[in-house]
Known about the structure:
By secondary structure, this protein is α+β, with helices and mostly antiparallel strands. The chain folds into 2 domains: about 50-75 and about 160-270, D-amino Acid Aminotransferase, Chain A, domain 1 (2-Layer Sandwich); about 80-155, ATP-grasp fold, A domain (Dna Ligase, domain 1, 2-Layer Sandwich). The chain has 9 helices and 10 strands. It has helices spanning about 5-15, 25-35, 45-55, 65-75, 90-100, 125-140, 185-190, 200-210, 230-245, and strands at about 80-85, 100-105, 120-125, 150-155, 160-170, 175-180, 190-195, 250-255, 260-265, 265-270. The strands form 2 sheets. Strands 5, 6, 7, 8, 9 and 10 form a 6-stranded antiparallel beta sheet that branches. A 4-stranded antiparallel beta sheet has the order 1-4-2-3, with helices on one face. The protein is elongated and about 75 Å long. It starts with 6 loop residues before the first helix and ends with a strand.
Amino acid sequence: MAGDVGNEGLAVLRAAGAALVEEPRAAMAxxxxxxxxxxxxxEAMVEDVKETIVAGxxxxxxxxxxxxxxLLGRLGLPVVAGDLATTEQAAVGIARSIGYPVVVKxxxxxxxxxxxxxxxxxxxxxxxxxxxAYGDVIAAGEAVPGAVVDGVRVERQVSGVEMIVGxxxxxxxxxxxxxxxxxxxxxxxxxxxxxxxPVGTRGASRMLSRLRSRGVLSSSRSGAPPDIAALSSIVAxxxxxxxxSDLEEIEINPLVWDGAEWLALDGxxxxxx
Length: 273
């Protein structure tokens, strides 16, 4: 749109093989065409998503972490092994069944961020530690004004490369999917790429290639390097689910590569209020 001033830049972009239009209405028409040509799920998949959500739980407002992860698992997304405990003895039983070390965290739809208030404890290696953690985490959750505590979620502890994968229904742009460097580095680095959803696996792969910190995806300190194809599939699936349901937001942070597979360690699902 810069007229003659932009000719030199346009020439460079054309030489690089970039797709170009010089007129706004043509650009909008091209984007609309790309949207129609994008890989989208068939009717059966759309109905499957809707039926899973309806059958799994009534999604209104923000779900607690346990309910969010149960729903994500039913929708075909990988979730770390764990379960909800409402008693100290149940917490010990879950820890014993999935194996130590474990993490104990509060489950409450009013407490999406747990670290800041001491509502999560990690590196628990025996029954005594789990019993203490159960009481401490419940107390921390109940100290939050207005919070309703469902119990604690006991999970297998894993570590590795951390990503954030999410989708949101934007008031202006509609369904948008995003992926970036996750965990504590999400806000610090701000290395996140977003695109209109759904994107398909090829679109998700292109999103990953645009990350400034994509080098972290090429190696692993233990086990095999991160599976980029599997990560692309997860990104695509998250976008598909949001675009073809009544959900308002999905966030998985972190999604961790443990050397063998990607696992959602923390998840949030928000339906319409």
